[in-house]
Write a structure and sequence with these properties.
By secondary structure, the protein is α+β, with helices and mostly antiparallel strands. It is 15% helix and 36% strand. It folds into six domains: 81 residues, 2-Layer Sandwich (Alpha-Beta Plaits), CATH 3.30.70; 416 residues, Peptidase S8/S53 domain (Rossmann fold, 3-Layer(aba) Sandwich); 86 residues, Immunoglobulins (Immunoglobulin-like), CATH 2.60.40.10; 83 residues, Immunoglobulin-like (Sandwich); 88 residues, Immunoglobulin-like (Sandwich), CATH 2.60.40.10; 75 residues, Sandwich (Immunoglobulin-like).
């Protein structure tokens, strides 16, 4: 029966072959492996000889399951959900994997899901560096509204008010909330409800989580149902240098949904060497963390500091086959997690810009990639390199590429050519053109991932003297010196991104030429983005971002002009003259750290060159506004804040369905909120108004979770045990407060022992000189001008005078601890004697309130003697029952 089944399977797999199968022994011999390295991932080859789980790509999963049942019955097979061509083989030995590899049903054997790790949590973010703040200023309608981003890693915090009203498919879960996931979601699409730092790039986009326990792409039907157009992946595994099943699956999904863009962090292993692949053993290159990052149709993003220098730990390229990776870098505070999140947010803004101009249709992800890469600011070695890819992301340039229509899309076949003409605007100094395409997925473990090869060329047309410019390419030879060589112009037959730049633009016309050099799986759609760089743009200061008095603020601008120095100056709003900040500033450095003076007024900055003056927005310079809760009582609450010098008023905000909304404009520094108002929303923030501009908004406070007991911040004894009872009261506010009373419990009732009516302070120290030795209980009673009364919690304090000893409870049940309270700071030697004077137990204690063990003792009367360190002796009678 078994042999007949195998014969039937062989006829299906080899219908034109002549096979002779004599018996089971010969069948096993037939499947002894021949060298099939191309079907086995290097990470599987590197594992030991024990049992392991592998992910297998097959031509027919049903036939494969049947083949496994008959050929390797001791090995379990599980289908990969949503992946009809993949299966998990569980518990296979090395010998069984060799049999498996010989099956013509098996295309590739790869590693299964590995534990993913977050690529460093965010410590700081600065939206100025990557042009995000400038987009918010110049294009306030670009917010990501109507789009959805997926954050694939651990569970984000669903209670975070920066996500309020915009979470999709977040259900109750027992999984722990990840701070890292919450930070990534905040960077991408935080609503800015908690504070200015909580505002993400696409701050009105919807957010949906996904689990990175599954390293394959999420189910496409589910992603489409949620409306996901960008998925962020700020995680990694180990360094993996090959084109595996995960790489292939992400490339395939990008082709199946051309609008969906996947953004990966490059990793934080930039100082390590790969241990497999073409670049094995080479230091600090080819160290992206995860084979899924080897995919062609996604983006990998590295990290820079605020000056655009690639962080030492940011993972470098090339990809396993020499392609450019990472394609972009972004300011990530030495971590690539937040760099990827920023690019995900910028991608959403580019998608919205296109959608709003094209009847609701989303752009192909290849166009978003082209816009991102073409507008990136060159950093590191000139043009492209394996550290920073095509440069540091520029949000402003990206959205302007789309909004100004500086792109083309098309379709091309084998041997075909597409052309379009560009006319440079007056004064253009640099032309940049980028070609991208969503390439068909390659076979697993392909030596080169590129399938369809397109070529880009820019032709300068100048009175018949045409000059051709080819794209910038890098040497991918596995040698450190070769990988560090500068880019040079030549045909690129490796990447599905090609870029041409020209400086000193003077020709009247340029022709962009795209050729189908080797389109084996065509026709192939493509996207081209281009720009003639603008000479100057302010990135900071911007009127939407105030400056802090005394702080070091980064002044930033874009500059594409020739080498030029300028004078940096500032002027308070009502001042007549300009004051010099720096007399000789190199514009190509694009930023300057300014120590903001104590001027507390709106200001302007300007850069003065020999030819032109560039004047900034008017921005507020103000001190920080510290919002505080005065009280949070059942009937009403009180907010108050410091008066900000130069402020003409204060705008109060209240949290609405998704974002903070203007609530009230006042010149006061207090706000009383009724219970009805708090029922609408308990979250409030305040922003100073300085004439025509606004200062930095305060953090947002929640009156429902203040930690206050109405007016009372805290009421505690200064020492739990002391020879004089002292208590400390801290109040949130004195607003409308009429009296404060200290009360002590006497005969079961609290009686007032001190009253303050005049000179009530936020911080008050009480001393009770009439306290009785032993336990004393206290509370504070407050009364406001309306006659309302509020009480603190009850607090206890032990009064123990010098050479005194408290012992309680008396009597005490045998086995229960006897508590002994001595003079503060004194160690005690304790001796317990029975009624006949025999010592039955002794110990030494050093605490203020100590426990004496009575376990194993008999009931009766005892004497407890305590001896202090200075030799004094105190005896107390104790009864055990």
């Amino acid at each position: 029966m078994f042999l007949n089944t195998i014969r039937g399977w062989l006829r299906v797999c080899f219908p034109l072959s002549v096979l002779v199968v004599a018996g089971a022994g010969q069948l096993a011999a037939q499947y002894k492996p021949v060298p099939t390295i191309s079907k086995l991932a290097p990470t599987v080859r590197a594992t030991g000889s024990g049992q392991q789980t592998a992910r297998v790509s097959v031509t027919n999963r049903t036939a494969f399951v049947e083949w496994m049942r008959q050929t390797l019955p001791g090995v379990r097979v599980q289908p990969e959900p949503g992946q009809p061509e993949l299966a998990l083989v569980v518990g296979a030995t090395k010998a069984q994997l060799e049999v498996l590899l010989a099956s013509p049903l098996v295309q590739f054997v790869d590693v299964p899901n590995r534990p993913a790790h977050e690529e460093r949590r965010l410590d700081r973010a600065n939206p100025v560096v990557n042009g995000v703040a400038a987009v918010h200023q110049y294009y306030p309608g670009l917010t990501g509204q109507g789009l959805t981003v997926s954050v694939k890693e651990n569970l984000l915090d669903p209670t975070d008010i920066d996500f309020k009203g915009r979470l999709v498919d977040v259900t109750a879960s027992s999984a722990p909330v990840s701070e890292h996931a919450s930070v990534m979601a905040t960077l991408i699409a935080g609503g800015g409800n908690s504070a200015r730092s909580g505002k993400g790039v696409a701050w009105q986009a919807r957010i949906t989580p996904a689990d990175y326990a599954n390293l394959l792409p999420d189910n496409l039907t589910d992603l489409n149902r949620r409306g996901v157009s960008v998925q962020n992946h700020s995680y990694g595994t180990g360094i993996e240098n090959y084109y595996g099943l995960e790489s292939r699956a992400y490339d395939a999904q990008a082709r199946q949904n051309p609008a969906l863009l996947h953004v990966f962090s490059s990793g934080n292993s930039g100082n390590l060497a790969p241990d497999t692949g073409r670049y094995e053993g080479l230091s600090a290159v080819a160290n992206l963390t995860g084979q899924f990052k080897m995919s062609k149709n996604t983006l990998s993003v590295g990290a820079t500091n605020a000056q655009g220098e690639v962080a030492p730990l940011s993972s470098r390229g090339p990809a396993y086959d020499g392609r450019v990776k990472p394609e972009l870098v972004a300011f990530g505070d030495d971590g690539s997690s937040d760099a990827a999140a920023l690019v995900s947010g910028i991608s959403l803004l580019a998608q919205q810009a296109y959608r709003d101009l094209n009847g609701g249709a989303l752009p192909p992800s290849s166009l978003v990639k082209a816009a991102l890469l073409n507008s990136a600011d060159d950093t590191g070695r000139p043009e492209v390199d394996f550290d920073s890819g095509f440069g540091q992301v520029d949000a402003l340039g990206t959205v302007r590429t789309v909004l100004n229509g500086r792109y083309r899309t098309g379709t091309i076949g084998q041997g075909q050519t597409e052309r379009f003409q560009l006319i440079p605007p007056p004064g253009a100094r640099k032309l940049k053109v980028t070609l991208t395409w969503t390439d068909p997925e390659a076979i697993a473990n392909a030596s080169q991932a590129l399938v369809n090869d397109l070529d880009l060329e820019v032709v300068a047309l100048n009175f018949g003297r045409d000059v051709q410019y080819l794209p910038w390419t890098l040497s991918s030879y596995p040698n450190l010196d070769s990988l560090a060589l500068p880019a040079r112009r030549r045909p690129d037959h490796l990447n599905n991104v090609e870029q041409v730049t020209l400086t000193g633009v003077v020709q009247d016309y340029y022709m962009i030429v795209i050729r189908g050099f080797n389109v084996t799986a065509g026709p192939q759609t493509f996207s081209v983005a281009y720009e003639f760089e603008r000479e100057f743009d302010w990135l900071n200061p911007l009127k939407t971002r105030s400056l802090q008095v005394g702080a070091t603020e980064q002044i930033a601008w874009q500059w594409a002009g020739p080498a030029t120095t300028a004078r940096l100056e500032y002027k308070p709003f009502d001042a007549a003259g300009w004051q010099i900040i720096n007399p000789n500033l190199d514009l190509s450095q694009r930023n300057y750290a300014w120590q903001v003076p104590n001027i507390a007024a709106p200001v302007q900055l300007r850069l003065v060159t020999p030819d032109t003056t560039y004047v900034s927005d008017t921005v507020a310079v103000a001190r920080e506004l510290a919002l505080q809760v005065g009280y949070a009582c059942p009937e009403e609450g009180l907010l108050y804040w410091n008066r900000v010098p130069g402020a003409t008023g204060y705008q109060i905000y209240r949290l609405g369905a998704t974002h903070l909304q203007p609530f009230q404009l006042t010149t006061d520094t207090t706000l009383v909120l009724s219970k009805t108002q708090q029922d609408v929303s308990s979250y409030y923030a305040v922003e100073p108004v300085l004439g025509p501009v606004r200062g930095t908004r305060s953090i947002t406070l929640d009156l429902a979770n203040t930690g206050l007991n109405c007016y009372i911040r805290s009421f505690v004894p200064r020492q739990l045990v002391a020879d004089t009872v002292k208590l400390q009261l801290e109040l949130g506010s004195l607003f409308r407060l009429q009296s404060v009373e200290l009360q002590r419990r006497e005969l079961g009732e609290f009686r007032t022992i001190q009253t303050i009516r005049a000179g009530i302070a936020l911080s008050t120290k009480f001393t009770d000189l009439a306290a009785a030795p032993g336990l004393n209980e206290y509370q504070v009673k407050l009364q406001d001008i309306s006659g309302r009364v509020f009480y603190s919690q009850v607090e206890s304090a032990y009064l123990v005078r010098r050479n005194e000893l408290l012992v309680f409870p008396v009597p005490v049940a045998v086995g229960e601890p006897l508590r002994v309270v001595g003079e503060p700071g004194e160690s005690l030697q304790l001796y317990l004697f029975d009624s006949l004077g025999r010592l039955v137990r002794k110990t030494t204690v050093t605490g203020t309130i100590n426990e004496f063990d009575t376990k194993g003792l008999r009931s009766g009367m005892y004497l407890l003697r305590a001896r202090t360190s200075n030799g004094a002796s105190i005896t107390r009678r104790v009864v055990l029952r």
